[in-house]
């Protein structure tokens, strides 16, 4: 049954954290995939919450080079695991888990955290431009041209806190700006492969004040994917996993305990 939750009070009321795993079922491994302008440490708060419940958690390194190659890198991690897997993707990482789930029958669910879930042939940039509200383009630093012809994108450090992490303490957001990882421009315009969310159950959480991906775009993608649970956190920024780790972990638990 699909449920849409628009605020934290209601989320708590319906018990979004999910039921405990039954004794005869193996605990799924949670594979977390970061997005552009971030790194694996962006999941630290969520990891702490999940480890309280003894989940095995892997924060996979996302190369941020291209949908197909990044998806293959995460898929290799999944193939190395036994038992069920929950794939969790933030931002561009959503496009990556959509790719990585294909061919891996042990992927039990996809959790999209302020993320893209492209249809076959769609691009992250195309989905952003389909709806009003993104201000990312105005905050990008001059592109960095690499010797292999790849163009890397960064967010200007001075604009990063308001653009990317407006509900994160300022000093923390400034550190995030300095340590941000670039995304290859081509990754944002690369067409997605088979849309795994058509066959794998999906779950969604995002902030209503996201300035990178328009909230209307994420609502559209969640509805299109027939999301089993959609959580929209009022006033949350693009990095909802940093500002609201308990709520993100709760949704992941929900996905892990679903039948």
TrEMBL record:
Which keywords does the record carry?
Hydrolase, Signal
Query: Can you tell which superkingdom this protein's organism belongs to?
Result: Bacteria
Q: Which Pfam families match?
A: Abhydrolase_6 (PF12697)
Q: Does the keyword Hydrolase apply?
A: yes
Q: Which GO terms describe its molecular function?
A: hydrolase activity
AB hydrolase-1 domain ranges (all copies) = 30-250
Signal peptide feature range: 1-22
Q: What is this protein called?
A: Alpha/beta hydrolase
* Source organism phylogeny: Bacteria, Pseudomonadati, Pseudomonadota, Alphaproteobacteria, Hyphomicrobiales
Species this chain originates from: Mesorhizobium helmanticense
């Amino acid at each position: 049954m699909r449920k849409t939750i628009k605020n934290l009070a209601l989320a708590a009321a319906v018990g979004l954290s999910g039921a405990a795993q039954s004794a005869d079922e193996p605990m799924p491994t949670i594979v977390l995939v970061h997005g552009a302008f971030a790194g694996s440490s962006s999941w630290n708060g969520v990891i702490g919450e999940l480890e309280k419940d003894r989940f095995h958690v892997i924060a996979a390194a996302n190369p941020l080079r291209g949908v197909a190659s990044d998806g293959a890198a995460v898929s290799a991690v999944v193939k190395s695991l036994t038992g069920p897997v929950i794939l969790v993707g933030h931002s561009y990482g959503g496009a990556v888990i959509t790719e990585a789930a294909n061919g891996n029958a042990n992927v039990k669910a996809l959790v999209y955290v302020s993320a893209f879930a492209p249809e076959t042939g769609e691009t992250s940039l195309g989905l952003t431009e389909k709806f009003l509200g993104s201000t990312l383009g105005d905050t990008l630093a001059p592109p960095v041209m690499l010797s292999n012809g790849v163009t890397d994108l960064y967010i200007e450090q001075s604009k990063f806190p308001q653009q990317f992490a407006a509900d994160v303490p300022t000093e923390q957001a400034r550190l995030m700006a300095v340590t941000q990882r670039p995304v290859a421009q081509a990754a944002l315009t690369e067409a997605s492969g088979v849309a795994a969310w058509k066959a794998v159950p999906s779950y969604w959480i995002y902030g209503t004040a996201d300035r990178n991906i328009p909230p209307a775009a994420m609502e559209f993608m969640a509805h299109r994917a027939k999301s089993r649970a959609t959580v929209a956190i009022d006033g949350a920024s693009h990095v909802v996993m940093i500002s609201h780790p308990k709520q993100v972990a709760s949704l992941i638990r929900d996905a892990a305990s679903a039948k």
